[in-house]
Amino acid sequence: MSHTGLDARHRPGPRPPAPAADSLVRPAPLDSPVLRLFFFHHAGGSHLVYRDWARHFPTDWEICLLEAPGHGRLLRHPLCGTVDELARWAADVVEPLLDRPFGIFGHSLGGMAAYDLARLLQARGGPRPRWLGVSAVRPPDAGPEHVVRRSHLPDPALRQALAEMGGSPPELLEDPQTWALFEKLFRTDFKAAETWRPRLDLPPLQVPTAVYGGNDDPSVGPGLLSGWQRWTTHWLGLRVFPGRHFYFQPDARPLADRIVADIRTAGGG
Description:
With 269 residues, the chain is an alpha/beta fold.
């Protein structure tokens, strides 16, 4: 048995990139926060999707924004090819900051990584999250018919799919030179999401969990999201908001308020 609690059939893949100085953005660092809240961004995104969120949370909570390798401030670093690799990288990044109560939130691909990170921390036997928030992610046992496959779409179709999803600046998709810089990033991230296969033989996660989504998200609707309740011992509920995949744009306040309420219900903050 490895130190992560995985047997030989489920050993980790390639070693993740070493954490860099810019792996974590802390807009308002605190010495002794009541709670640290770690945020994972979506496929093709960066920490900037959460750049204004700190103002929506209590001032004694520290907001910590993870920057995945190959994204944003780490654009020149190697990409993580799988969700497992991303979660193991994140475990190394957050480990020095687990001396305070903490929660984890992730959207889309980031939600997959958030769940895998919570699993990894539980398996290691150290501090575990007071709360897990998963947004717009299929549950671990969703069948292949629920896997949205975009990584191998032809170039025009991929850009059209991204435009329909939202969350990407129009100039990124419309300018050929800019798109050339980011196409590999999107395809690698989408491939990681498509190949996410969490272990199904594990007991439910022993972390209070809430799930969030848009009522008009064509890829991960409320009916599919409700399946998450099977994967936690403490189900806080499914929170559905008006909108599509990026239902929290342009106004994150309703989601942030719900997150604060759910964390407090879970006994954090």
